[in-house]
Amino acid sequence: MKFDPQKILIVLHGSIGDVTRALPLANLLRRSFPAAWIAWSVEAPAMPLVERHPAIDEVILFDRPNWRASVRPFLRRIRSGGFDLVLDLQRHLKSGFISWWSRAPHRIGFAPRDAKELNWLFNNHHIAPAAERESKLNHYLRFADFLLLQTSVIEWNFQLSPEEEKAVEKFARAIGGRFVAYCVGGRWESKRWFPHEAARSAMEVNRRYGLAVVLLGGTEDRPFAAEMERATTVPLVDLTGQTSLREAIGLLARAEFSVGPDSGLMHLSAAVGTPVVSLWGPTDPERTGPYGFDDLVVRGSAPCAPCYVKMCPIDRMCMESIKSSAVLVKIEAALARKGTLRDATG
Known about the structure:
Number of helices: 13
CATH topology of the largest domain: Rossmann fold
Shape: globular
Radius of gyration: 20 Å
Mean pLDDT: 94
Number of strands: 12
CATH class of the largest domain: Alpha Beta
Largest sheet: 6 strands, parallel
Helix content: 40-55%
Number of domains: 2
Strand content: 5-15%
């Protein structure tokens, strides 16, 4: 079926990682429908990724913490948007309702077997079912296939403002030289690595390669960073809770490589072409791994992994099994290929 939309709505209120993985689809839409108005319905944590993005004309914010006050104006904007095409990338009841509420004549969602909470009932077109353990990025690209778009170009197109570039430059001057980024966060407690092993690998990175070690994350990650600092004999540059999300993107773009568990910053590192050594336990890198860096994956081992449990009942056995020695092997591989990868995907 051939589409020629004038006003497109993307519905994805998901995590920073999910929104990052969906941005290549937005770029394909812009490339294929240059005159179309493209809006994105999102929640606050991932909003910085889509506001002022060159592929997005409008960001429609759903303020979930204040939903009682915000839901009516939010739904009024969705209804008044005059959208003729909706891409429901969330596959839950809420996103399905938003898609249906838009009254768009064409509402594309996931295949019924891949949807949750009867989401598929709210959409009148459905993409092909996902292959087993298909990556989320490729799953999103199935929407482009449904629209008969060329998908040969995968790009993110992050563009920082001049003020953000100045802030990143100030951080870089304070760091004082080449550095590696340790992304210490993780929305799920079960995904987090252990500070003492992270500290061991950080000390060895500093000793072997002379790289400064920068810790990135949110304010909630400061205790982890403090434990790392107590366990090291080399200085660490703790920027947890001190950067905006967009400033963190700028720092990741300047890093030699990054290290960390399954998190939004991990996906942003890959998106800007910086090699990422990713650490996996309760989730599956084949499904949610960073784009282009499959060879730098470190898997933990446990009989139950991957379990997709947010709070681990057995003390994160899978993540505890990841030792700094295994991470350092992947770090050496990351440094060996960094230059060509930055040219190819940055």
